[in-house]
Amino acid sequence: MTQKAKRDAARTELLRLLRGLDFYRAWRIAGIKKTKGDVRQEDLDQIVESGAAFLEHFDTAGGQYNQILQSVREWYSHTFSDLCVMMNTGSAADMSEIRQFLTRFRSEVGFDFKSEAGLIAKTIRKALKAGKITKESDYYILKEIENDAYQAFMKGTDFDAVSGMLRHFENQ
Questions:
Q1: Which of 2, 101, 140, 159 sits CB 3.0–4.6 Å from 154 for a disulfide?
Q2: Which residues contact 151 (CB under 8 A, 6 or more apart)?
Q3: What whole-number distance in Å separates Cα of residue 11 and Cα of residue 17?
Q4: How many CA atoms lie within 13 A of 18 on its CB side?
Q5: pLDDT tens, position by position, 99-143
Q6: 47 secondary structure, DSSP code
């Protein structure tokens, strides 16, 4: 496959994922409007950038375009983790609203949010199986999880093992 064909395939995948990202963004903005009546810039700063912004980053990234795609994939994983935490710690109304969002997402966007959220879990499994972190990109994914006190991916001994691998990687 030529470099242009690889980039075109990555762009096509990015566009598919950005449809879901924009659906989520619109849902969050609607929730803020419902709660506050209006949406301010500081509210928007707490929500993921628009799909158009990611697409612009991709189109200007040169040979580093895959980093933008990777970033959007990571966003799905982190956001799904956040949604799981909210469903497990929030009110019954919050749980219902999130479940409705996930159902609408699947029917309107055409794929399942959860199915796109597997990157972090896959990275954790890979590191635990190998007993070490081998790639810098994996390090950053796992470091983000370690820093998130509310993450839903690891607990107990797995968390401790990954933390140890992170320290080892940092000391290399």
A1: 159
A2: 81, 85, 145
A3: 10
A4: 18
A5: 899 999 999 999 889 878 877 788 888 899 999 998 887 887 788
A6: S
Tokens of residue 24, six digits:
């989520």
Supply 142's token pair. Answer: 């796992």
pLDDT digits (tens, 9 = 90+) for 72-90: 998 998 898 788 778 778 8
Q: How far apart are CA 121 and CA 47, in angstroms?
A: 23
Query: What is the DSSP secondary-structure string of the chain?
Result: --HHHHHHHHHHHHHHHHHHHHHHHHHHHHHHHHHHSS--HHHHTTSPPPHHHHHHHHHT-GGGHHHHHHHHHHHHHHHHHHHHHHHHHS-HHHHHHHHHHHHHHHHHHSS-TGGGG-HHHHHHHHHHHHTS---HHHHHHHHHHHH-TT-SS--HHHHHHHHHHHHHHHH-
Residue type, 74: E
The tally of CA atoms less than 13 A away on the side-chain side of residue 68 is 26
